[in-house]
Amino acid sequence: MPSRKIISVLILCIGVILSVWLFTNKPQTKAVTTDEDAVPAVAAINIEGKVNEDWKKMLTSVDPKNSKVVDLTKNQTSTEDDTTLTDQMSRDFMAQYLLAVKNGTDLTPEVADTIAKNTLSLPEYSKKSVVYIKSNLKVTPRNDKETWVKYQGKINQALMPLYFEVKDDPLRIFSSAVSREDEAELKKLDPIILSNKSVIKYLLEIEVPESAIQVHLELLNASASILSDLESMRVAIGDPVRGLPALGYYSEDAQKFAVALSNMNVFLLQRTI
C-alpha cells in the first residue's frame, strides 16, 4: 500500500504534467459536494462555478501595434471550463508558476517546493465528506428492552447490503483499473457505491434511542466517509487528484468503520441481554 507521502508526490507529478495538457481537453467529472449544514470547511475556489482565471490572464497578451489579441488558452476543440479537481489543481499550480516567472523569480528547487506546497495546501484539495450530526437523526426517548431489540434488528437490516451485495474488494478493483487505465473496470465500484448509499439511507431512517446517538453517529459517519472514498475512487482515471488519495483514505476509513461496528455491537449487547 503506498504511503501518504508517496501518494502526495504522485499527485504533484500529475499536476505538473497535466497543467499544459488540460488547456486542450474537456472536463470529465464534477467535484465532490458536501453537506453544508454539517461541514464547516468552505472551498477556497468553487470549481463548479466561478474559477481561478489568473492563469488565463497570464497567457493572454495584446500586440500594441495592431491590437491583436494572442490567447494561448483558446483552442479549436474545446470551449468548456474544466471542472475536475485535477483541472483546478493544474490551473492553481500553473498560475503560481507563471507568476514566479513573470516576477523574475529564480526557480530554485526551494521555490518549486514552495509553489507545490502552496497549491496543495488549498482547502479544495483536502478530503471532504458529509458529516452527520444529532439533528440529522430520528431520536426517540424510549429506553425499554423492546425498543433496544427493535433497534438492534434495524441496525442488522441496515447493514445487510454490505454483507450480501458487496462481492468484490474495492481496493482490488481500483488497483486493477488504475494500473490498466480501464474505465470499465472502475464501473465495478458502482454496485458497491449503491450498497453503501443504501446503508446510509437506512441508518438515517432508523429511530435512534437517546443513549445510542453517539455510537449511531460513529457508524453513520464512518459509512459516509467510505462512500466518499468510493465515489472518489470511481473517477480516478478522469480526475486523479481526487481519486488517488482515496486509496489511502479508504483503508483508514474501513478500519474506523470496523471499530464503530464493534462499538455498536458491544453497546447493543449490554442492553439486549
Question: Structural class, from helix and strand content?
Answer: mainly alpha
Radius of gyration: 23 Å
Largest sheet: 2 strands, antiparallel
Summed over residues and divided by their number, the pLDDT gives a mean of 74
Helix content: 55-70%
The number of helical elements comes to 11
End-to-end gap: 41 Å
What share of residues are in beta strands? Answer: under 5%
| Strand ordering within the main sheet | 1-2
SSE string: HHEEHHEHHHHEHHH
What would the principal axes of the Cα set say about the shape?
elongated
Number of strands: 4
Q: Would you identify the regions where 5 or more consecutive residues have pLDDT less than 50? A: 1-50, 75-81
List keywords for this structure.
273 residues, two-stranded antiparallel ribbon, two-stranded parallel sheet, 4 strands, 58% helix, 4% strand, elongated
Please provide a written account of the structure.
With 273 residues, the protein is mainly alpha-helical. It contains eleven helices and four strands. Helix content is 58%, strand content 4%. The strands form two sheets. Strands 1-2 form a two-stranded antiparallel sheet. The longest helix is centred in the C-terminal third of the chain and has 27 residues, at 246-272. The model is unreliable at 1-50 and 75-81 (pLDDT under 50).
Quick synopsis:
With 273 residues, the protein is mainly alpha-helical. It has helices spanning 4-21, 54-58, 85-102, 109-120, 145-164, 170-180, 183-186, 190-205, 213-234, 240-243, 246-272, and strands at 60-62, 69-71, 138-140, 207-209.
